[in-house]
Amino acid sequence: MSATEAQPPLEELFNPNSLEYAYNPGPQCLALAERGPFVWYEPWQAWMMTQLPDIMACWKAEYLSSDFYDWEFAPPRPPEDQWSNFERALIGHSLVADHAHHRLVRKVVSPAFSRNVVDEIQRRIKPDVERLFKELGRPEVFDYKEAISNHIPFISITRMIGVPEKYWDAIKPVIMNFTQTWNPTISDEQREKARQECNQAIDILKEIVAERRHSPQQDDFLSELLKIEQENDKFEEWDILTLILALIGAGADTTLVAQQWTVYSLLKNRDQVATALATPESFANTFNEVARWGMNGKMGFARYAPQDMEILGQPVRRGQMVLLMPHLYKFNPEYFPEPEKFDVTRRFDPDIVFGYGPRYCIGAALAKRQLYLSMTELFKNFPNAELAEEPERDTSDHNSITFKKLLIKTNC
Ligand code: HEM
């Protein structure tokens, strides 16, 4: 019997849907990383890339596809005459399918993510966040999820894009449910409902774009994109719509999860709150430490083999899924001495919490700002806040560990 055959099945060592993982993912992540740099995970029918240098090389060179339709189990790409808005945005103008077009879009839209625009977006979001805390009043105990964090993705995305308030009710379901359109763990009916909501939302977005073309320029993302459209032949209205959907898709759930873990980590480590919130820069480092210490990732980032190929010595078939698992390194003492200790002054080099290379997170600056803003408001309103109880963890999300409730005792 070979050494490989003698090993227990990987799923016995690593099960990110288990309660054990939800409460203590470190040992399972280390066991997976020790199994080898590129391993097959039977339950998900996917390869897993476990070592940071290999993952960074893959992120950088983009030798794998990010296009869901390249996956061996994806539904067939519908022909163009059957496209609704949804397919037109996600196939016809996809940011993932065509690397060259993706790079062009990233290049031309970079001014829309400049420091000035992010400053302006933060200025707009601030009154909304302050209002949430004002409406909350002075309760003895409150659920941070229900009162604050559930509202933040919607506030920040609508303010960022510049969606007028009259459209908020209509567009809300799609912001909250958009990622359901490709969530493999929900029913076909639920996925179809999310797809229909998305179709309607695209009609509304088209209306907003048309209105904005006729109204004076404002300092928001949509106005910036319309300027960019005028200056670039290869960047057109469908690119704008697709990009907005990408912001919704990538910016809503991540924010929801990051809000919960930041509050939890800071309340568990009250002695570090002042250092963490001293400046936006110190908070940016804190954000990395929260993402490391409060590691909540399960699946990593999906890629697909564009053809039969060999990766790290293993034969990979065209269409097979490869999961990049950068979260495994967060528990590795070689990178982080005493990994179980929370320390907002740790150094992060490399700093990969927002990815790396051509698909580096477009919303990184905004994500950090909106979290800084909410945390500052939380501790301004409730300087003596503490966790009312150890929150129960929720394993139901396919991608992240979250909390069922986050009860905060205000002590005011
Ligand atoms: C809150 C914490 C967030 C984290 C930890 C995060 C992390 C990441 C990571 C790791 C990637 C690369 C994914 C990959 O390689 O497959 C990414 C991509 C992306 N993120 Fe974020 N993100 C966050 C928030 C946001 C927000 C608020 C927005 C927008 C408002 C956003 C928009 C995007 C977009 C559009 C991409 C795709 C970029 C591309 O393919 O060119 N993210 N994010």
Question: Would you mind describing this structure in some detail?
Answer:
The structure is a single chain. By secondary structure, the protein is of the alpha+beta class. It has one domain (3-409): Orthogonal Bundle (Cytochrome p450), CATH 1.10.630. 50% of the residues lie in helices and 8% in strands. Strands 1-2-7-4 form a 4-stranded mixed β-sheet. It has a 3-stranded antiparallel β-sheet with strand order 3-11-8. Bound molecules: protoporphyrin IX containing FE. The site of protoporphyrin IX containing FE has 21 residues, from α14 and α17.
What's the Cα radius of gyration? 22 Å
Principal-axes shape call: globular
Q: pLDDT under 50 segments (min length 5)?
A: none
* Secondary-structure element series: HHHHEEHHHHEHHHHHHHHEEEEHEEEE
Q: What separation lies between the terminal Cα atoms?
A: 66 Å
Biggest sheet, spatial arrangement of strands: 1-2-7-4
Mean of the pLDDT scores? Answer: 91
User: Helix fraction?
Assistant: 40-55%
- Give the strand tally: 11
Structural class: alpha+beta
Strand percentage, roughly? 5-15%
Largest sheet: 4 strands, mixed
